[in-house]
């Protein structure tokens, strides 16, 4: 029994592992380094392009609930993420190099997985899982368009800059976690406080800064696109776009001083947080500062942040095109394509957004592909689970403007009885979902 997995990102790596663990021989195709991508920096499988955070691990948070479900279902990538974790308060952040390196080494060592470093240009005739993600090559995009009979939907994604810790001015910046909920006494984040005058000056320069001009294929979206054409995904808006929504938008968003004000003698008007990006603690990324400013402008404007006036940039922020399909017309709740039961699609290509959502759909597709190969019914998870509700959204949505969706409690069916306390209500969602998942798995072994 052989399954082809196309794409070695988060979803493809998890899918390959799950299918192999179920006894299938897997051929995993990854085009890098033969065909480079515009955003990746290494040839490792599972490389994180944007943030190094996989979201909150708290059970009363949607990403925390999803992690608990993946733990029950034996996710490889969640295990590796926890093994390569960095201090980040209640969030699961990883050393991106160690994380991707460990994934690559683990898959290379699996006796049932063969990794093939070449671009796939056609959709295989046999059992396969497509996980080519938001940076699907032009050649394979054409093959997908021909197969689906549907135009792709585009949105733009932006990544935040990374600076060296050694050049941060700690006579201004300080270490702390919001509400002191860190993993160590010193605090997991570096914080750069601004007074009102500094903040308004910063926002003014940010809005005026010169941006990178989009290439024609990114700005002139083809006709017939159902939604999302030429727009940023709301959950990944560049900081300069956020700033145009109102002068205080950032101060009440990614730069809010809440939970940190007691660490400074003078009450800050806004705070820029930096999160550790590698195990050595030498690199930090600017939280919420994904951007499409020109590189010299990034250096000029972000050095206006108190404490970063001498910042050395390890990586500048950048923007790239993300591609996803109109999943309701293409996929069933098992992640099988409607046209072919032996072909699955997983990851960001389906319209699921966020690292954990990508890993989760890869896990489900890998398990289901193996089950179909073994003549078993594929899993269709209860909609009370976070993964089940995500898959239901992307496969059954009837919204006119279909958009990518992250894990959130808003897509899960309501509880039988209303719980007024928000935290208790979210914990109840999690407890119900995990119980339903365990029962489902016990009944469908």
Search tags:
single chain, 445 residues, alpha/beta, FAD/NAD(P)-binding domain, Elongation Factor Tu (Ef-tu), domain 3, 2 domains, six-stranded antiparallel beta sheet, five-stranded parallel beta sheet, 17 strands, 16% strand
What does this structure look like?
With 445 residues, the protein is of the alpha/beta class. The relative contact order is 0.17. The protein has twelve helices and 17 strands. Helix 2 packs parallel to helix 10 and helix 2 runs parallel beside helix 12. It folds into two domains: 268 residues, FAD/NAD(P)-binding domain, CATH 3.50.50.60; 162 residues, Beta Barrel (Elongation Factor Tu (Ef-tu), domain 3), CATH 2.40.30.
What's the layout of helices and strands?
Elements: E1 2-6, H1 10-21, E2 25-29, E3 53-56, H2 62-72, H3 76-83, E4 85-86, E5 91-94, H4 96-109, E6 113-116, E7 128-130, H5 138-148, E8 153-159, E9 162-164, E10 174-176, E11 189-194, H6 196-208, H7 216-219, E12 231-232, H8 239-243, E13 270-276, E14 283-286, H9 295-302, E15 313-315, E16 318-324, E17 343-345, H10 355-373, H11 386-396, H12 422-443
Parallel strand pairs: 1-2, 1-7, 2-6, 7-17, 8-12
Antiparallel strand pairs: 3-5, 4-5, 8-16, 9-14, 9-15, 10-11, 11-13, 13-14
Helix pairs in contact: 1-10, 2-10, 2-12
